[in-house]
Amino acid sequence: MAGPVAPDALDPHWVELSSLVTRVGANRAEMSRLHAERAEMCAEALDLIARRVAQRQAAHPGREIGDSIPLREVLAELATALRVGERTVSGWLGDGAELVSTYRATLEALREGRIDERHASAIIDAGVALDGDVRAEYERRALDIADTATAPELRDTARIIAARLQPSIVDEGRRDALAQRQVKTYGLRDGLSRLLLDAPAALVQGVFERVTDMACALESAAPPDETEDSDDRTLDQRRADVLCDLLLTGDQRRADVLCDLLLTGAPALGAKAGLGSIRATVNVTVPLLTLAGLDSRPAVLHGHGPIDVETVRVLAAAAPVWQRVMTHPVTEEPLRLDVYRPSGRLRRLLNARDRTCRWPGCRRPAARSEADHTRAWEEGGATCASNLAILCKGHHTLKHASAWTVRHLGGGSLEFTSPTRRRHRNDAPAVVEARGDVGLRPPPWRRLLDSQYDWSDPAPF
Asked: Which of 145, 227, 240, 316 qualifies as a FRET site for 437, CA 20 to 30 Å off?
């Protein structure tokens, strides 16, 4: 991100906002520095615990101590002094130890204010299953992305980086997920309960997409005809019902549809609205060599992250439509889309490239956002991938109704310029995931050419 612009170079309307943004940035940097200090103090606290354990063992030589009293002593002391829960302190201790002992570069970035506490936590969490010999490379790539990404964006991308460096963690994660699948209920308040489903990511994503499509179909259905003779409600009652329907949120409609599906196998009014015919659309990006069994690079389930190859092949075998996306051999930017049905192919290409709204920090799915001409069509802007970007409705409106500007940098990258002249670079997800991947191993096209293919061997999916 570019630094502040001299006040005399700005419209006077934006000078105060620019000054405020500068102060907020300085405040964030100072908070990050303090969080780095806290991480070091937490690591020091763990050293105190280790020394206390050694003292107890020395006092009782040859005896198995086997208790957690030293840890509990420190947790209770810190939690009481800071007026936070012991679980919170335990999390601080764990992150502090990881930063000091394993992720030193991340600790320095935190101290310098380049990242904040949530970025550091994302790097630690996504790398927890990695072997020691790949952690340095993982940290380097994650920090490169952290300079321009929000913490949630970094968390998703860091998981993909970790899976690319050590593909075995995806299969291990799948086995753990299958072992932990369950359904639970929790009583909440005022007659409200929560149904919690833990299941494989591809299934849960499919369930969510299907109930979302059904909820949208319900929302777009016409309200009941006020003149219909068979309706014995009063006019005021029918108006009240229509108003309640309009006030229902997307979350509420999804909940209603899901309950109907689980209880009866079909949503209410399914015969009228045709909701039973709606099926989930699950978007998975999978390298061709992985699908062919020649590589172990993980596939990416949109809205979740890396998933195992076995699940991908099952989905691929059952998919009614495949979309072949040609990508750049280095940056992995989607360049061209080949699909049987030509209608909407450019929009599908944009969805494959952008995945979500491209506004920095926004994560609304591309399928529920809009394709925006970066240079307006009425001003001569072309309807092509190099002049289009996915923006959600809110950010699409903001771009046209405010002084924000956007320009394409090429290679799937955009540059947003705020009214205070600060520049924010935003790379397409595929480009971000491929960053730093060059030179670590032969490119995919070389591995494909070098592979020996037996034409009598059937496809593995």
From this structure: 316
For the chain, state the CA radius of gyration: 27
Inform me whether the pLDDT recorded for 449 exceeds 90.
no
- Beta strands (DSSP E) in 130-178 are none
Q: Tell me the C-alpha to C-alpha distance, in Å, between residue 453 and each of 260, 304, 449.
A: 49, 33, 10
- Locate 339 and state its tokens: 């699909």
Token digits of residue 387: 């002049």
Cα–Cα dist 405/384, whole Å:
18
The span from the CA of 287 to the CA of 281, in Å, is 19
8 A C-beta contact, residue 326 and residue 316: no
- Which phi-psi region, left, alpha or beta, contains residue 332 (left: φ > 0; alpha: ψ -120 to 50)? left
Residue 29 three-state SS: helix
At 47 the pLDDT is 93
Residue 408 main-chain phi, psi, to 5 deg: -80, 135
Residues 333, 184: Cα–Cα separation, whole Å: 41
Distances (CA, A) of 138 to 121, 188, 287: 14, 41, 20
* pLDDT surpasses 80 at 101: yes
Q: What does the block give as tokens for 433?
A: 């995931």
Q: Are 214 and 257 in contact (CB under 8 A)?
A: yes
Query: Tell me, what's the pLDDT at 82?
Result: 93
**Backbone angles phi and psi of 425, in degrees to 5:** -85, 140
pLDDT at 272: 43
Reported for 283-286, long-range contacts at CB under 8 A and 24+ positions apart, including other chains, are: 283/351, 283/367, 284/202, 284/312, 284/315, 284/316, 285/325, 285/352, 285/430, 286/312, 286/316
191 conformational bin, left if phi > 0, alpha if psi -120 to 50, beta if neither: left
Rounded to whole angstroms, how far apart are CA atoms 268 and 270? 5
Q: How far apart are CA 74 and CA 305, in angstroms?
A: 37
Residues 6+ apart with CB under 8 A from 188: 194
Residue 185 in tokens? 């209920």
